[in-house]
Design brief:
By secondary structure, the protein is an alpha/beta fold. Helix content is 36%, strand content 16%. The strands form 4 sheets. The chain has a 7-stranded parallel beta sheet. A two-stranded antiparallel ribbon has the order 1-13. Strands 2-3 form a two-stranded antiparallel ribbon. α6 links the parallel β11 and β12. The two termini are 37 Å apart.
Length: 335
Amino acid sequence: MTSTPTPLGSRTLGTGPAGLTVSTLGLGCMGMSEFYGAPDEQAGLDTIARALDLGVTFLDTADMYGPFTNERLVGRAIAGRRDEVQLATKFGNKRGEDGSRLGIDGSPEYVRSACDASLQRLGVDTIDLYYQHRVDPTVPIEDTVGAMAELVTAGKVRFLGLSEASAETIRRAHAVHPVTAVQTEYSLFTRDLEDDVLPVLRELGIGLVPYSPLGRGLLTGAVTQTPAQGDSRASGYFPRFEGEALAANLVLVDRVRELAAEVGCTPGQLALAWVLAQGQDVAPIPGTKRVRYLEENVAAAGVRLDDAALTRLSEAVPRDAVAGDRYGDMSSIDR
């Protein structure tokens, strides 16, 4: 269990022609524009610039963040540095300009129009990794991925991904066109994908991109009470931050904090190191809008955990000990 100042390095998502090499650690840009408190555009621009300087070149956004403003922010941030970046964005969660939620759309027509709109907002000619953000239960996945494959042929997209897709959906999608990566929530606090999804990814040679690898901030140890109003974690949308569930989860965080002290790192770094240790085909995208937190996250790539430490950490946070569903409404999650 040592911390070393090694370069960040890279990992490859997918295999063969479907392989995309990305930085070992990515950057989730969502919170720069919405959900976790007031947006701060300049802080977001500064954070992305610092990320690129540190070798964090795998940037994740989506059209629905803002809505639409996060893609524009990322586009501004990478102007003049496009060649350094592996750019990922997503479609499927429809929203209006006023922020209203309009449902999930996986129709081929929407796939095409959403991609063109994202390219324009991002100010780029090609998206490196294009995800379906949520699976549309009313449209066969074969039709959605077929339309996404046409974007690859047209040169608008390089690689395809799915977000929050079930094992069966992943198989069906991959049969239409190689899927390079699946993005889903994965952390010490969310491990259900280990049962069905992760084995299928390994079987098919598909990379895993964990979002919320820090449990939406819980695993950093910085959250000690329900966040203030204006932060989406204060709503019933995230039950793990409420009442008795939060109290139970903070007990688990205390265990992580104790182990982190032994290792000589922060709780968040230990939690990230655990995710990174799950395989070379895993590239997490912790989100932040502050340079100091970015730098802390990057340092996690230098934390080395031996088998004994990994076992102790998994035992300190048993899968079934985490209180509350990860979303108050799980109906949009493909299962």
